[in-house]
Amino acid sequence: MSKIKFRYLPHTADIRFVSYGDTFKEAFENAARALLNIMLDTKRISRENSKVGSIIIKESARTKENLVWYVLQDILSKIDEKSLKAFDFKITKLEEAKPKLSGKLFFKDTDKDYSLLEVKAITPHDLKVEKAKKWRIHVLVDV
Predict the structure, then answer these.
(1) Architecture of the domain delimited by 6-142
(2) What is the mean pLDDT of each run of 10 residues along the chain (143 residues)?
C-alpha cells in the first residue's frame, strides 16, 4: 500500500491532483478520495455517529482514462443529486483489459453540513493514467 495516497498540485483556476497506488485499483480509489476531500470534510463525516449507506457505481469505457472520468463524474453526480455526505469509495470489481468497474460510494445519513467546495465537473483535459514504478492518475477538477 502506498504511503502517499494523493497530492494536490498548483493550478491557476481549478484544482489538479495526482493519485498514487501500487495497483491501478489503489490509485483509482485514491483518486476518488481526493475528489471527495475537495467537496466534503470526509474525516468529520467518517467520525459521524450515524448510519452508513452505500450506492453502487458501475461504469465501462474504452480506455482507463475514460473509465476514471466516467466514475468520478458519476460520484460527483450522485453526491449532488442526493445531497450525500460521502466519505469513501471502494472498488468491488475491476477489469483493466476491457475497462469496467463496479464500486461502492459510502456515505453517512446525517443532516449536518460537511460541504467544503462546489465542484462543477471532472474535466477530461489533462486526465492521464500512467504506470512507472507506481500507478498515477492525474485529474483536473473544475470548481
Answers:
(1) 3-Layer(bab) Sandwich (3.55)
(2) 84 93 98 98 95 97 98 97 96 96 97 95 94 96 94
